[in-house]
Amino acid sequence: MTFSIEGHFSVIRDPRQQSKIDYELLDILFLCVVAMICGAEAWNDIELVGNARLAWFQSKGFLLSGVPISDTIARIISRLNPEEFQRCFINWMASASKATEGRIIPIDGKRLRGSYDNKKGLSAIHIVSAFAAENGVVLGQIKTSEKSNEITAIPALIDLLDIKGCIVTIDAMGCQEEIAEKIISKKSDYVLAVKDNQKKLHDEIMDFFDCAKQHDFKHVSYDYFEETGKGHGRVETRRSWISNCLDTIEKTEKWAGIKTIGMVESERYINGVTTIERRHYIASIKQNAEIFAHAVRAHWAIENKLHWVLDVTFKEDASRVRKDNGAENLGIVRHIALNILRQDKNSKISVKSRRYKATLEPEYANKILDGLF
Questions:
Q1: How many CB atoms are closer than 10 A to CB 294?
Q2: Rounded distance, CA 313 to CA 310, Å?
Q3: How far, in Å, CA of 30 to CA of 14, rounded?
Q4: Which residues contact 113 (CB under 8 A, 6 or more apart)?
Q5: Among 134, 132, 171, 167, which Cα is nearest to 259's?
Q6: pLDDT for residue 147
Q7: 349-353 contacts at long range (C-beta below 8 A, 24 or more positions apart)
Q8: Which residues neighbour 224 within 8 Å (Cβ) at sequence distance 6 or greater?
Q9: 143, 296, 310, 357: least buried by Cβ within 10 Å?
């Protein structure tokens, strides 16, 4: 991945008066990214990393005026326009990670629990992210406004992304006609979970597969894929059916590009107890159960490889940053740091261990930061 901080982030408008600038904006942005890679969690941590690595920064042409104090860092980052910052991030990802045919792009939301402010009556902000499941990098994010939710944020995020030829997966919240149409308009496909927020559609899909299973899918066009996994004391068998029979689904014309309906049955055996869960989907992909199963399973990567890592490794939920745009902009910095850490394909250690190693071993930090300038 190529990351040119000057090439991609120099267009962000500096909110300060030009006559009062002691530290260049790009210097501060670069400092925040490097500090986050090296284990920083708060503004004062960023200042500490800057002072500890000042000679290295200056050897690269940054922080020639020294390291700003944490209050200055917080004030500047919190005043940046998050839409401009986000667009720079997305443009960087678009240039560094080209979309490939059939790539799975899960989209899901996450609440930054520590960003609420009871005194000001502000609830915690909610971030919707797009994730490349195969290589584990964030493609973009967008904050939901106070009067909206994921239903309005998802189309806005899709508008910003280059997802041509990809398969977008979204949970039941995103199973909306407008979202399906937006995905198709971007020349991509979708696999959308269906639950009781689309009750009639959900009932129609359930009835179809219940009836088809009872008759062993006789005279029904379908494809089937099965896989079994073992680990952590449990055995799970996942069975996936997908069918292009849409005759029992009313008003399919409402769903742009719809070609198939699908069901995944997960049978789990844990400590002598067996449970079965069934999930239902609409999709614009062809009748291929293996691709369908892969898309459904890959969707959970955004929870396991992004949200979980942000909370456990970067302590995002514990962050009390809340002033102005600080929480949202620091979230973008975390995404940048995570993407860079994930580019170390030779290391088998966790992201948490990579941050720790970058803190302890300047040589390792230099290696993974090699393309940042």
A1: 19
A2: 6
A3: 14
A4: 124, 317
A5: 167
A6: 46
A7: 350/313, 351/309, 351/313, 352/312, 352/313
A8: 217, 239, 240, 241, 289
A9: 357
CA distance readout (Å), 224 to 43, 69, 137, 212: 52, 60, 30, 13
CA pair distance 64, 57, nearest whole angstrom: 8
H/E stretch holding 8 reads helix 5-9
- 137 CB neighbour count, 10 Å cutoff: 21
Side chain identity at residue 331, one-letter code:
G
pLDDT at 122: 61
CA angle 39, 132, 138 (to 5 degrees): 35
Residues in the chain: 373
- 288: amino acid identity, one letter: N
- pLDDT value of residue 3: 53
Which residues are 280's β-sheet partners? 194, 263
CB atoms within 10 A of CB 147: 6
Task: Please list the rounded mean pLDDT of every run of 10 residues in the chain (373 residues).
Answer: 64 80 90 94 95 92 94 94 89 69 88 65 78 90 72 92 94 94 97 95 97 93 93 86 95 96 94 91 98 95 91 86 85 92 86 92 86 59
User: Cα separation of 12 and 5, whole Å?
Assistant: 11
The torsion region of residue 271 among left (phi > 0), alpha (psi -120 to 50) and beta comes to left
Both tokens of 132, joined, read 């490349």
> Which tokens is 331 given?
């979230």
Cα distances from 61 to residues 27, 31, 56, 90, in angstroms, run 9, 12, 9, 25
> Smallest Cα–Cα separation from 223: which of 184, 189, 260, 186?
260
Q: Dig out the tokens for 95 from the structure.
A: 């240039």
Enumerate residues 6+ apart whose C-beta is below 8 A from 337: 33, 36, 37, 314
CB 129, CB 152: distance < 8 Å: no
- Type and span of the H or E element at 59: helix 54-59
Residues 259-268 as b or e (16 or more Cβ within 10 Å = b): bbbbbbbeee
Give Dmax (Cα) for the chain: 78
Expressed in angstroms, the distance from the first to the final Cα of the chain is 12
